[in-house]
Amino acid sequence: MKTTRNIFAVFAVGILLMTVYSCSKDFYTNANVNPNAPGSVPSGSLLSGIQVSLAYTQGGAASQFTSLFTQQTVGAQRQAQAYYEYIITPADPEYLWDQMYTDVMENNYTLMNQAGASGQNEYYGITNVLMAYSLQVTADFWGSEPYSGALKGTANLQPAYDNGQTLYSTAMQLLNTGITALSNPGKGSVYPTSDDLMFGGNESEWIAFAEAVKARLFIHQCKHGNSAYEDSAIAEATAAINGGFVNAEVYFGSAATSNGPWSQFNNQRGGYISFVDTAGGPIPTPTLIDTMEALNDPRDSIYVNFSPSSLSLGNYYGSPSSPVEFITKEELYFIIAEANERLGNAAAAQTAYTSAITANMNKLGVSANEATLYLAAHGTLPISPASALHTIGVQEWIALYLNPEAWVEWRRNDAPALQPIAGPEVVRRMIYPNSEVTLNPNCPSATMFVPQLFWDN
Amino acid sequence: MLLWAGAALAQTRVIQGTVKDGDGNPVPFMVVQVKGTTIGTYTDTAGKFMLAVDSTDKMLVLSYPGMRTQEIAISDNMLITMKSDALGLDEVVVTAIGIPLEKKQLGYATQTVGSDQLNNTGTSNTLTELDGKVAGLQVISSAGDPGAGTYIDLRGPTALTGTNQPLMVVDGIPIDNSNNAFDPQLGFSSGSSATGAAGALYGSVQPTNRALDINPNDIASITILKGPAASALYGIEAANGAIIITTKQGGKGSEPGIGIDFNSSESWSTYNKLPLLQNTYAQGTWADANEENPATATYYGPGSAIPFSWGPPISTLAYDGIPNAYNQYGSIVPSAPGLKSAVAYNPYDFFQTGVSEDNNISFSGGGNNSGFRISLGNLHQTGIIPLSSYDKTTFNINGHAALSKKLSASAGINFTNSVNDKVQQGSNQSGVMLGLLRTPPTFDNSNGNGKNAANVKSTYILPSDSQRSFTGPAGYDNPYWTVNENPYTETVNRVIGNCNLNYKLTDWAALNWRFGGDAYIQDDKNVIAPYSSENFPNGYAYLIDYINQQYNSDVTLNIDRRLSKDLTLNLILGQNYFTNSTEVRTTQGTGLALPYFLDMSDATSFLSKESEGVLHRSAWYGQAIFGFKDQLFLTVTGRDETSSTLPANNDNFFYPSADIGWVFTQTFKKISSKAFPYGKLRLSYAQVGQDAPVQALQTYYAPAAVVDGFTSGVTFPYMGLPGFQISTPTTVMGNPNLLPQKTNSYEVGVDLAFFENRISLNATYYYEKTTNEIFEVPIPFSTGWGFEEANLGEVTNKGVEITLNTTPIKLKSGFQWDLGLNWSRNINEVVQLAPGVSSLYIGGFNQYDVAGQPADEIYGTDFIRVPGTVYDPSHPMNNVVLSDQPGPGYGLPIVGSTNQPLANEQPAWIGGITTSFSYKTARIGTFSIGAVMSIREGGYMWDGTYGAMEYFGTEQVTDNRGTPFNVPSGAQWGHLNAAGQIVHNNGSGESPGTGGGVTEDPAIYSQYYYQNVDNAFTGPISSSIFSASYVRVSQISVTYELPKRWIQRAHFVRLSVTLFSNNPFLWTKYPGVDPETSLGGPANAQGSDYFNNPNSKSYGVRLNLGI
User: How high is the ipTM of this complex?
Assistant: First the structure.
């Protein structure tokens, strides 16, 4: 009998062990919490990721498309060859769109809300400016895109599309909000320092960048002339420069997991995109390099390596730790030059034009002697306003090497006069990615040509 | 202590006996059970058993898969002859918690494969052995690599993104069959943990399914439960069916000593099928991709950055005679007198003969009331790819003892150690086939080093230390480089154990506690040396540890009682507890300092990551089987489950089932006759609930990272800075409101026997519907997120399974011919994904689930076609629009940009034929010949290998370069205007629609055509889709078993020799490797072939010895 009792004890223990264990709700709920990932993080842990994502996306997917479209580079193989020939399917812009909306904008939106709710004015201001810049970059690819209803997760599964004009005015409002917040920094206990990879938490540099973005938004709308916008572009660009504008850019690192986008692309997808004439080979020289060689431009050997043993992208943009540039000082001078030329202020245009080329050459490390020689040969604007605009445009196209802004510039000024690689026309806009086409019924239809963006009409 | 006390009480009578089949051969591994109890044992290899019984015990029940269950009155020394039961009508099915049920009691379909049908041919993966043998079971071996995974599909896919693999149970304990496939190239920076290759399916190595750790030689039988009908007992994991493995057990004969079984096999393998290559044209490119004659193309050599085989004819080239590191005969130049002519090399010389040695020994025996079995197995296998190998050692011990007349206990433990040297595959610049199949015929990967090339450094390393490959130092890796300098080693140590205690309360009731666990550590180490073409030019090292533990307990009350003369009740009431924890730890080291020191300590920067997940489930369940007059059986079950993965307020759910089995030939004795002795109808309904994925209720922050489709991107910490983010393109939003998903299934079937059981037929129709399916629902990225976890999917499966087993010839002289056929057809439909979601990427390159289509659809772009016509995979070029725009594309098809469902991976039907001829006499022994054939009809593969080889100019089809473009049937002129509409040039401008049929076309098959129109990169997805139908002979074996009288003097019980072949013949129109292949291994997205490693065929010999 004792044995029988013992046996029952064993089974009782068996049942107890397993069921008592499982009756506790806490035990169950806690088991399902991820121990390796936080559910919330402080603002200081979010900003760097947003900036690196923005830089990597701009210097990666965005720059690949636009440098091929503007013939700064040549698509030699595979997908890059297809893009170069304007063969683009809805799968192709997926990375660009997805990264901009998640890695960049959703994280930025999260930080913006978090900083706004807790009175962290510096983070609040910075995220407003970064959001405006992100909208400008994406709106210049797609025209219409979701913003007012976007970034809300499952709370709005089908965000409406805001048209280009609305997006531009939204960006302008975000910039104003940002400037206001940055002008009242407050310096509470939480503010950016080294986590701000662009300006190290310097509010006045952020304000200058915000003004530079404004200048861009104004000049974009001047394709057929608009003196109010031209005045505003000059005013904002000048304010930025006078406010101590520092080139808005993100530097990458030498460790393999922090290398810049172009260096990674060329290492991991070598041969897809060609930067320079392959010495009699079957791949053509990029129009940009041909143009620069014709102008005897000293910057061509900085942009690319002509050495037959390494026909490749040069170190300034192609090394692992190269920067990805958002807006540079020379672009502000080009904006001032173009706006003045459009307004008929030839002298002011000329001054800004010279400053633009000089700033660009200084940045790239062109010797003073070479810069002087180049300016002597090509530093004077033609008298005809149309020719002058074209000359400014060509120089801006050269200076904005690998910057997506070069495609905007080309669409506005048709400078340089690019020959289409295939078909009758160079592409003028981006198609929408598969995910939007299939999942968001608000997504408008578009090709690589129509509808043209509102400022391109 | 308790057990010892029980043993001391044993006051029982010991009986012993021998079980033989109708031909007088001993029957090993027979279940011998005291009727009405769970006390029992197994016969040993000599068919002998010994059992302690109580004086009140009267009858024994003997059962074995494939044999008729028999009840025998207990006597002291029993000689029992079992009647052969080819029908398996009274076959015993071992259920989840180790309780055998007679098959006639079941109202749902099962099929059992006995040890006689397993491990005859020395395969290492148990699941592969099931190919062609079970109706409704599709077996896909991913590749011929040693240790490559096997995917099994029962009755079609039900889960959209979760696993579709059935539950695997070994001796009553659920075991893990995961494919742990973190892809170092993707997983780390994209922020996902263990979903790398399984999620994206692009590259790295072929994942292994962990059932591979089970030694097939330890398996007594495998029972396949095809639907979810048995899941009240098995729980959630059995929603996709279950594979129940019973291992061999030891018993004790009347003779002293122990039984020893030994078998040894040796086999040799080679590749069975490879893509066809052109060997006419050299490396190089056309001066003008479209206009010129291929003869005027320009030769470019290794290191030129021209990776194409679009060069001039090799017949016009010669070696300049100045040896260099790329070629011992010198550089290639135009032919000239006195120069040695250039030749085409055969890149397939890379493959070698793989050798496999498999040795197994087992001892079995025991004491008076007990039995044990110990086995030791070792497999050493080298692959058809140099330096690939798989070594597995298994150790298994189990024992059982009747400790008293009421208490019995059993326990078993299995230990496995394996080391697998894997090979880089797929879309991975180090993938062996990627480098191999792009190699131009003028480049010798082996550098003249012949068969020993893989072991000679000059094959793959240049004097400058960098890599010797046809693309120069970068591009695609020389396969010899890959196998030497990009090693991937997977080491597994695994223990699976079970214990069972059974206490007999009365004659008809017993308590049973079965518990056990499965724990393993899988250590993967991958190093990519500097100078490799991989994403990190300075190389990287990866250490990945998977630590998996799962434990299971079932406490049951079992009642088996005759309630009245006609009514029996078999009742099980139980409580189950299951827990699983997985942990993945990864370390990535980059920037290797020494080029050829392949170790983590060579790295200069490091990133580490861990991910842990825990799952608890507990359930109360019951099953009652009412038997009426031994002819009508009604089963009802219910299971009440609680799972930790569901929200706390919603974590409990209940699911029922009911089935009826009616042996109508017992009821209507009139229709029962010698010609029609047996007939049974089955009817069943079952529901099973499923819980949510682990940690799916909440959204978490992760270390910041950005990655795109071309590069490995940036990972935080970034230059010493920490960083987190809440959203990335792969992040899934958690959902705190998840509900359990439900599968309802209905099944009707019939089991019939004719002509003294010489013919048996089983047929089943089933319908299965899964609703509230939890999956990662894609949402527009403009929401800020790409996916949300939600209960929205609905999938149905319906189908027919037929098994026909016959013995067409059975002669008194001992000759017998058995022939078995099985056939099944499953119709699967993804009824709904989510409102507004019409397609869902599931893996591979183009594998999607599309609403209204079967799951796993090949989805993508097509050529622009004449309005009103659609793509037809059997005539892919019909009705294309040919460009009427001037330019290089003139006269060629136009590539569209709209994604659409194109073709489906799932077969229309699958079938298997098993046949055996045996000639058995006491005088000269037994000869038998067996063969298994498997057939797959329908189903398509996306053969990206073919499409990429077209682009590179290595596929044999590109031999037609320079010949006129064949005008496809129904082709018309036209092009797309800027708005994307189809228009044609009418001579003066553009008119809508296409313009007239094309009768003459000046276009040629050119480099332009293969690089812009028809290929896997810039061409449409539809241009690389091919039928994957095949007929194969998957196994042939010839066995000779020596007659007893010859071997008795040497005290042998059995001695046989088998000659066998696996996969010897394959008939298919598929242009790539064996169409039974899978880029992502044993994961949902089947149907993708992108430089998959080839499959193999093997020949071998096996010796089987019983002492």
Answer: 0.95
